[in-house]
Amino acid sequence: MSDESDQDKTATYQSVVAGLAMIGFATWVVLGSGLFSSAPELTLKAQASLNKVAPDEALGSAAKAPVAAEKPTGVAPDAAAKDPLMAEIIGELKSETAVPNEALLTFKDKAALAKFLKRAKGYGLEVVGTLDGLSTVRVRMDSPQKLRDYLAASGPARPAMEANHWMNVPSLAKPDASNQGGALPSGTEFLQAVNATGERTEWGKGVTVAVLDTGVKANPTFGDNQVTHVDLVNDGTPFHSHGTSVASLIAGTDDRVPGVSPDASILDIRVANDKGYSVTSVLAQGILEAVNRGAQVLNISMGGYDDSQVLRQAVDYALQRGAIIVAAAGNEKYDQLAYPARLNGVISVGSVDAKGVQAYFSNSGSGLTYVAPGVGLPVAWDTDKMAMASGTSQSAAVVSGVAAYYMGLGLTSQNALGRMRASALPTAGTQVQRGFGIPRARY
Known about the structure:
- The chain has 443 residues and is of the alpha/beta class.
- It contains 13 helices and 18 strands.
- α4 (84-93) packs across α6 (144-154) and α9 packs parallel to α10 (309-320).
């Protein structure tokens, strides 16, 4: 797409917004503008591949992401049948969403973890990384037998063991012919839906919002020194712009891609690679990092469908320290929420369209906290572009912006959460489809 002239900008914007109602957003639609340059080379096919192609590297691991179920290697066919401990290991690690030949081990305390780190090599277990705040270690092995041997020798000090699961930025479900509703784009009117109107230049002042995502690129919508970067993937690949889009909805300062709380600071914690993939251990590490660096609000616009005790412990770590965690419910039209949105204490967010109708792609289910506009929102894209986007990722970001507003008033997290709940405007649908409704500012 070439740059549009200034006189064509308004017409182009209007046509794009109208088109989104028909195509339901299967990709980013990019607009040219004065400060923003031409569109990135992102097609419908490319966006679809983002959610289907396995990442080249396993975020600090040499293991490839499984496309189909892949059993751990180096196991005799009858080993599990003869050995209950091996059966337990195989049962945990054989999931198609588990990183092959990796495991997370959680010890009772730091002393037990330190002891293991000295012995790991002797058992043929490679230490990939540690989560010191949780006394957890990520290990890799060429055969589960080596993990079995270590666990068998641990006796009463045996650590808890679980798979390291793949997680990703949500994909978008295809439009459902039986559900023609929930597809009206909001545009900049998403701000009115959460009562973010009038003078907002100091909204979020003094508040740090951590964006745990694909990384946040420099973009004209962010002010000088507004974004601080921490890269936990550190694989040398370019950042995918999903994280940039999410951050702009929270704290963007440009009127064309505005954020709810433009005076908030963004702590960019990159936990997903250029294909949008992460793993449980890296997301958990990101949560710890965010809290330890002083973030009051954590936005997690990604997830998966595998429970994880390590992720639960990371969430508890943040909640116990007064942080607010906001997470996307998921875009698969499921009647259950993705993790970590599904966890107790996490603000889980689904999507509605401009009329307050549940978005056709939005997950719902028991425990859904809020909904927010998530169809056709203007966002920052790349280093100098803007786009229209849809998804529960965007809805979660809007709610994070509302949370930052309340925290900016000097409230405790509990008082802020109380104000958000009291402000919520119920929308159409059942409780599991809308939660308490759309949270609003200034209440």
